Amino acid sequence: MRPIKTAVFPVAGLGTRFLPATKAMPKEMLTVVDKPLIQMVVEEAKEAGVEHFVFVTGRNKSVIEDHFDKQYELESTLRRRGKSKQLDKLEEDLPGAGQTSFTRQQEPLGLGHAIWCARHLVGQEPFAVLLPDMIIEANPGCLAQMVEVYRQRGGGNVIAVEEVPMEHVHRYGVVGAKDWQDNHFSIDAMVEKPKREHAPSNLIISGRYILQPEIFKEIENVQPGIGGEIQITDAMIALSANQNFHGLRFSGKTYDCGDKVGFLSANVAFALDREDLNAEVRAALQAIISARGGTLTWN
Ligand code: UTP
Question: Model confidence over 124-150: pLDDT tens digits?
Answer without folding.
Answer: 999 999 999 999 999 999 999 999 999
